[in-house]
Amino acid sequence: MLAGLRQKLVEAKSLVLKGIARVKERGAEYMDLYGRRLVDSAITVLVGHLFLKQATASDRKRHVAKRFH
After folding, report:
1. What Å distances lie between residue 24 and 10, 16, 17, 51, CA to CA?
2. In 22, 28, 50, 52, which residue has its Cα 20 to 30 A from 11's Cα atom?
3. In this model, does residue 19 exceed pLDDT 90?
4. Cα–Cα distance between 42 and 61 in angstroms, integer?
5. Contacts of 55 (CB under 8 A, 6+ apart)
6. b/e for 38-68, b at 16 or more Cβ within 10 A?
7. How far, CA to CA in Å, does 8 sit from each of 24, 30, 59?
């Protein structure tokens, strides 16, 4: 299960980075429109990585990571 979560997070990170690059290409107006969504997406990926790291060390945290998955 943790390997599957890790793979999803790697893919999500890639998508967030692509989204950031696309918005930067489009300029400040796009940043105003999509900046918040990109930040929210990046935070979700970051929190997922934190859950994953904790889940490798604790059975209780593994259940939290499973819910996040």
Report:
1. 21, 12, 11, 29
2. 28
3. yes
4. 21
5. 2, 5, 61, 62, 64, 65, 66
6. beebbeebeebbebbeebeeeeebbeebeeb
7. 24, 26, 20
Residue 63 CA to residue 10 CA, distance in Å, equals 20
Place of tokens 């918040």: 36
Q: How high is the pLDDT of residue 58? A: 83
Task: Please write the tens of the pLDDT for every residue from 21-67.
Answer: 999 999 888 888 999 999 999 999 999 898 888 888 888 888 877 77
CB 48 within 8 A of CB 4: no
AA letter at 7:
Q
For the record, the structure tokens of 44 come out as: 């979700």
